[in-house]
UniProtKB/TrEMBL annotation:
<dbReference type="InterPro" id="IPR011009">
    <property type="entry name" value="Kinase-like_dom_sf"/>
</dbReference>
<feature type="binding site">
    <location>
        <position position="77"/>
    </location>
    <ligand>
        <name>ATP</name>
    </ligand>
</feature>
<dbReference type="Pfam" id="PF00069">
    <property type="entry name" value="Pkinase"/>
</dbReference>
<keyword id="KW-0812">Transmembrane</keyword>
<keyword id="KW-0732">Signal</keyword>
<keyword id="KW-0723">Serine/threonine-protein kinase</keyword>
<keyword id="KW-0067">ATP-binding</keyword>
<dbReference type="GO" id="GO:0016020">
    <property type="term" value="C:membrane"/>
</dbReference>
<protein>
    <submittedName>
        <fullName>Rust resistance kinase Lr10-like</fullName>
    </submittedName>
</protein>
<dbReference type="InterPro" id="IPR045874">
    <property type="entry name" value="LRK10/LRL21-25-like"/>
</dbReference>
<keyword id="KW-0547">Nucleotide-binding</keyword>
<keyword id="KW-0418">Kinase</keyword>
<dbReference type="GO" id="GO:0005524">
    <property type="term" value="F:ATP binding"/>
</dbReference>
<keyword id="KW-0325">Glycoprotein</keyword>
<dbReference type="InterPro" id="IPR000719">
    <property type="entry name" value="Prot_kinase_dom"/>
</dbReference>
<keyword id="KW-0472">Membrane</keyword>
<dbReference type="InterPro" id="IPR008271">
    <property type="entry name" value="Ser/Thr_kinase_AS"/>
</dbReference>
Length: 352
């Protein structure tokens, strides 16, 4: 009995892998453009000097530094596990490979040879935004001032706006977070990692999903439950809002090392500071002339994380708010269930 079940499981898994491999080959057969370029696995080994310089790793696999024959430095992501089996690879090549925008990381090439899959990106020397907003220098000071964070926020917003409005098909990223925002030589932000992305027509207001996509802490309530509304491009707006709050607060909205998340829920703390008329000066460690920037970022973020998708702005409106005057911004309504209400309603999604 056990032997029969094991054989069935292995056969089914092998069949799925064959189907995914065929899906990738069919996709590549229809992939007519010459950009990004397709490399052999031998070419990938040459680019990375046989994977000599490892930059990092994650659930997707490992990233190596390399160089093209013309001397351009690149980062090569070797996909492993489920991400190498087809869907995530197709998402990356089929979406990011066609996006020419200054705030979207460029996919320069890829490799699909047997079970080996690789993605070749432009090299981002300053790594991800996560490295800078959650860290301090030797003197305990934040690494970026608020004016720099505002510029980065505007760049990210313009990138997401382009995904939603600037392409032939609307691209929903579904994983906007600090780790997926890379910084170039001048610390300009570039959105990366399109493995969870979904394409839809620009006039499609509702997106069908069979599973939750994203990272805990950045996932919109409507992705968890349709009681909050339908899944749409507004889900990316919510993620962007949570990203903004982390940039301002300098800490994660959810800390996996802390059991009682309600005690550290960042949006509620920020909202109480805002409506209470308190100064963010001491709590956020900023200079006197940065108060206005902080308030702007906070107000925009709180609009973005409204629980109802209908109450969230479009990314075009978000860009306008970020580059506009603070005086023109309205204070948003409370975007979550308060702590007192949380005790009475265990079904709320306050910990998102």
């Amino acid at each position: 009995m056990i032997l029969g079940f094991t054989f069935f499981f292995i056969s089914r898994k092998a069949k799925r892998r064959r189907e995914l491999r065929m899906k990738v080959e069919m996709f590549l057969a229809s992939y007519k453009t010459t950009k990004p370029a397709r490399y052999t696995y031998a070419g990938i080994k040459k680019i990375t000097k046989r994977f000599k310089y490892k930059l990092g790793e994650g659930g997707f696999g490992s990233v190596y530094k390399g160089g093209l024959p013309n001397g351009i430095p690149v980062a090569v992501k070797m996909l492993e596990g489920s991400k190498s089996e087809g869907d995530d690879f197709i998402n990356e090549v089929g979406t990011i490979g066609m996006i020419p925008h200054i705030n979207i990381v460029r996919l320069l090439g890829f490799c699909s040879e047997g079970t080996r899959r690789a993605l070749v990106y432009e090299f981002m020397p300053n790594e991800s935004l996560e490295k800078y907003i959650f860290s301090r220098d030797a003197n305990g000071n934040r690494l970026f001032g608020m004016d720099k964070l505002l510029g980065i926020a505007i760049g990210i917003a313009r990138g997401v706006e382009y995904l939603h409005q600037g392409c032939d098909q609307r691209i929903l990223h579904f994983d906007i977070k600090p780790h997926n925002i890379l910084l170039d030589y001048d610390f300009n932000p570039k959105i990366s990692d399109f493995g969870l992305a979904k394409l839809c027509s620009r006039d499609q207001s509702i997106v069908t999903m069979t599973a939750i996509r994203g990272t805990m802490g950045y996932i919109a309530p409507d992705i968890y439950s349709r009681n909050f509304g339908t899944v749409s491009y507004k889900s990316d707006v919510y993620s962007f809002g949570m990203l903004l709050l982390e940039m301002v607060g300098g800490r994660k909205n959810i800390d996996p090392l802390v059991d009682n998340q309600s005690a550290i829920y960042l949006p509620e703390w920020v909202y109480e500071q805002l409506i209470g008329g308190h100064s963010f000066q001491v709590a956020i460690e900023m200079m006197n002339n940065e108060e206005e920037i902080v308030r702007k970022l906070v107000i925009v973020a709180l609009w973005c994380i409204q629980w109802s998708p209908n109450d969230r702005p479009t990314m075009t409106r978000v860009v306008q708010m970020l580059i506009g005057s603070l005086e023109n911004l309205e204070i948003p309504p409370r975007p979550f269930v308060s702590s007192s209400d949380q005790d009475e309603d265990d079904t709320s999604f306050k910990g998102l």
